[in-house]
Design a protein that fits this description.
CATH architecture of the largest domain: 3-Layer(aba) Sandwich
Shape: elongated
Largest sheet: 6 strands, parallel
GO cellular component, one term: cell envelope
Family: Belongs to the bacterial solute-binding protein 2 family.
Order of helices and strands: HEHEHEHEEHEHEHEHEHEHEE
Pfam families: Peripla_BP_4
GO molecular function: carbohydrate binding
Structural class: alpha/beta
Number of domains: 2
Number of strands: 12
CATH class of the largest domain: Alpha Beta
Distance between the termini: 63 Å
Number of helices: 10
Subcellular location: Cell envelope
Strand content: 15-25%
Strand order of the largest sheet: 2-1-3-4-5-11
């Protein structure tokens, strides 16, 4: 009986030891990085996700991409998966500035650092750091170009992104900080299309029925700009209505070259993704003092300066 008790105690010790080893990545193996993005239905976010994963792997870590499909509940499932599967860091592109806070908090409570990319959460105490495009300033520059192109007069439409995303409102506020100073410019409609190309097509088609005489469309991202342009082509108005986007996506950069889209704000998903992965690496090596918000500059790209830019590289 004594030997049996010793054997039972030994087996219990072994099971506990194995369990403790699997609760995080094996100390003798590479650490694991989860890349959780709002959606992979947009090529821009594909670049963000793949760049983050590639950089993490280049630094010697395992990496896996999770697609939240613009659904905060699905994002929550990904966080639970990352926590129980022993991931050591999360590189996050949030689905919602408010709704994602609770997910980031769960990771923090589990001792897992979270580095936000491109989109932020409305808290300065849950994420380890947030690497963000300077959306406001980028759209100030777009607003100046917009005013000049319309010669300070005309009717225009604004197509917003996701209403729960701070980027939507930072871009809109930056744009309006310039355009609203010119009474000759009138916004005849403002509607959300959730950063989605097909929704933007449908939204502008509907708006054109009520407001056929417009001079420009300002879109909160490039996917919506392409959808808006498609709607204008269907209405035979693509040559008389200027379209403005934001992101610097390949298709819009090419459309600017072809003199279809007027301008965009060029973000760098590669810069944000690589920075997030590098911050995770620094965290693993002992650093704990990170800036809460790290701005990344946005460049104005127009038909006048497009020759200065090559098509963004794809992985």
């Amino acid at each position: 009986m004594k030997k049996q008790g010793i054997l039972t105690a030994w087996l219990l010790f072994v099971l506990l030891a194995v369990g403790s080893c699997t609760s995080r990545s094996d100390k003798n193996g590479p650490k694991k990085v989860a890349v959780i993005v709002s959606t992979l239905n947009n090529p821009w976010f594909v670049v963000l996700a793949e760049t983050a994963a590639a950089e993490a792997k280049a630094l010697g870590y395992e990496a896996k991409i999770f697609d939240s499909q613009n659904n905060t509940s699905l994002e929550a499932d990904h966080f639970e998966n990352a926590i129980v599967s022993g991931f050591n860091a999360i590189l996050l592109n949030p689905t919602d500035s408010d709704g994602s806070i609770v997910n980031v908090m769960k990771a923090k409570e589990a001792g897992i650092p979270v580095f936000c990319m491109d989109r932020e959460v409305n808290s300065s105490s849950v994420a380890t750091s947030q690497i963000l495009s300077d959306n406001y300033s980028g759209c100030v520059a777009l607003g100046v170009n917009f005013v000049q192109a319309l010669n300070k007069r005309g009717n225009y439409v604004e197509i917003l992104g996701l209403v729960g995303d701070n980027n939507t409102w930072n871009r809109s506020k930056g744009f309006h900080s310039v355009v609203d100073r010119y009474p000759g410019l009138k916004m005849v409609a403002q509607q959300s299309a959730d950063f989605d190309r097909n929704k933007a097509l449908e939204v502008l088609e509907s708006i054109l029925q009520a407001h056929p005489d417009i001079d420009a469309v300002f879109c909160g991202n490039d996917a919506m700009a392409m959808g808006a342009y498609q709607a204008l082509v269907a209405a035979g108005k693509q040559k008389e209505v200027g379209v403005y986007g934001f992101d610097g996506a390949d298709d819009v950069m090419n459309s600017i070259r072809d003199r279809k889209i007027k301008a965009t704000g060029l973000q760098s998903p590669q810069t944000m993704a690589k920075t997030a992965a590098q911050y995770a690496d620094e965290y693993f090596n002992g650093k704990r003092d990170f800036a809460q918000r790290v701005p990344v500059a946005v460049e104005l790209v127009t038909q006048q300066n497009i020759s200065d830019y090559q098509t963004p590289a794809r992985l």
